[in-house]
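task queued by scheduler; priority normal; single chain, no ligands, no partner chains; default sampling; output format set to structure tokens
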Amino acid sequence: MRTLDPATSRMQSDTNCHSIDDDLMTCERHEGRNWSLLLIFGSLTLAVVAALFWLASAAFSLVSAAEPIAFSIYCMDHLDECPTKGPRFVRYSAPLMQLVSKVQTQVNGAIIPRRETVDVWSADVSSGDCDDYVMTKRRRLIQAGVPATAMRVVVSRRSGEGHVVLVLRTDKGEIILDNLRRTAYLR
């Protein structure tokens, strides 16, 4: 219970003191609030919120890093082109960039653009859409010795429509192979 201190005109809280032994005494102040519980609850709340933000960012990165379903279907039919173990990037070099540029130019010139009514991902076709360019370039790079695990297929939006490009990860950045561009480029 609070009482008014006549000397200072301030409210004082009751203090209960208990003697533990002759030299030690403990005192408890009662102010109507338990600050230690409030501090613990606040810390736990902050920890839960931080954990939820971490989980949300982890889930978002998993979703954004996931391969397109059509690519997964392609891999089921071409297991040799879709290993799960291996290097995640390659060393950038002038010969690598020459190889990538050669594949980019050859495949862009060999495939006739065609809008597909049924989206089937294929490699080594005479006509097709962006995913067919990507799979053909990917296959040619694998045949030339580039590890499949260093490449990824990325879906983006272009003019409101889905578009697929091939990304080759290097120690200097990512090389982008896009059928809508004449040359491959390092980003």
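post-processing summary
- Helices lie at 35-65, 69-77, 94-110, 130-143.
- The longest helix spans residues 35-65.
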